[in-house]
Amino acid sequence: MTSGLPENPYNPHAWVIGDPVIGEGTWIGAFTIIDGSGGLVIGQGCDVSSGVHIYTHSSARRCVSGRAFNEVEREPVRIGDRVFIGANAVINMGVTIGDEAVVGAGAVVTRDVPARTVVAGVPARPVATVELSDEASRRPEFPAIR
């Protein structure tokens, strides 16, 4: 039984559009939309949780103008290395997320996120920083979030 989605090497239940560049060791959960149509780079060792939507396009201006603005806008998205994106988060076009950042579940990211910053909410705002202790530096899969 197939999901009806185009095949991709990441998850049979993810919809991957365009040609995103996705780093080694990155995991993509089910029911995600990965839009590479406007240019998308996801770094190494990231976790993109189930239900996440990453958009590199918007048809909002085209829609509300009654198609007078006859263009689908596109801006690239860059997600750094070892970034965690929580379930059902939305990343809007044109956003850059720095290395080792954390995006909380359900967050809507409309602006850049600095490295080692935890963001949450709608719209996403900084709520904490990621600090790697000496032990976590040896085992980066267990960062201490404070």
UniProtKB/TrEMBL annotation:
Q: What class of enzyme is it?
A: transferase
Pfam family for this entry, one:
Hexapep_2
Q: Name one GO molecular function term.
A: maltose O-acetyltransferase activity
- Cite the entry's keywords alphabetically: Acyltransferase, Repeat, Transferase
What InterPro entries would the database entry show?
Hexapep, Hexapep_transf_CS, Trans_hexapeptide_repeat, Trimer_LpxA-like_sf
Entry's EC annotation: 2.3.1.79
Q: Keyword Transferase on this protein? A: yes
Q: What is this protein called?
A: Maltose O-acetyltransferase
